[in-house]
Amino acid sequence: MKTSLNFLTALLLISTFSFGQNFTNKIDSIIKDNYQKNPNVGISVGFINNNEEFHTAYGKLNAESQAEINKNSLFEIASITKILTSNLIAQAVVENKFKVDDYIDNYLPKEYILHSNLKNKIKISDLASHQSGLPDIDFGKLIELNPQQPISNVTQKTLTDIINNCTELKDYGQYRYSTIGYTLLGQILEKVYGKSYDEIIREKIITPLKMKNTLTKDFNVKNRTVGHNSEGGAQEFLTWNVTAPAGLVKSNAFDMITYLKAVLNKETQIGKAAIITEKKFYKVENRELGLGVNIVTDDKNTIYLKSGDSMGQSSIICYNRTKNWGIIILLNQRNSKMRQDLLNKIYDTVLK
């Protein structure tokens, strides 16, 4: 009997190893094929399956360098920052700082004076699920003013003027992607904790998880990739300012897989908070949203995902809690179609 049990254990280990190899080989093949067809677009991918990690990367840090992109290379994760911010919101809920269905009125900084039509109307969950109805920053105009650093013209006064001059909510309860909503969430966190957003995200996510290459204000490091706009021109990393909670964190595939490990572990503080963010707060036809995450379901799977596009980079993060896998894809060019096509192909051929 003992011999039989040992044989079965060995067989199970071999099967698990082969299954893992099958996953990683297929993912690497898809990424390699994409790079060979698009050699000007560098890419870094991290994958986790039942706590086993896999990384692959192709391309150079920049056109002048011979240094290869790897799992530690720094990218702009752009709006994937919103997943981090929504997790901080959920952590605050766990700590009884507020409830997700509280109105924002008493949690906003004193600079904001809501019009009577807006009072006791907008919930914290409305901001986090993009249905607040508030006006947003006009990125088109900002890009015209400064295509390299468009958000440099966004200040606290910009935000205060937008909010204080708003007299009616547009399509409240309907989905409209909002940068200002997540900026306000960051400021709500600052008020309830009495600390800056930078301090909060370090204290509650970056430091506990030892995400040493997840950076905020200071990102002038040797392993930083050079971003490129959709036409292939070099693009600067966006500098830290008041809109940081909506999209200004920089990170790499290794650190984002570390974050996904914590998300998938429901015993961690981050994992407990992530479960709150995964509840459905918005559902209309084929769109479902949690707090900061899109929810996609089919007959067998529920996946949670968030994409990000800076001026010069594109990214996407996706995970399946039930099947215990997660993936991060980072591109050094703004190319939302490519990053989505890659995820779709990996999902359809490997993960589904």
From TrEMBL:
Keywords of the record: Hydrolase, Signal
Highest rank taxon of the organism: Bacteria
Keyword Signal part of the UniProt annotation: yes
Gene Ontology terms for molecular function: hydrolase activity
Entry keyword annotation includes Signal: yes
Pfam hit, one: Beta-lactamase
Signal sequence segment: 1-20
Ranges for domain Beta-lactamase-related: 30-339
InterPro entries (alphabetical): AmpC-like, Beta-lactam-related, Beta-lactam/transpept-like
Designated name of the protein: CubicO group peptidase, beta-lactamase class C family
Provenance organism: Flavobacterium pectinovorum
Native organism taxonomy: Bacteria, Pseudomonadati, Bacteroidota, Flavobacteriia, Flavobacteriales
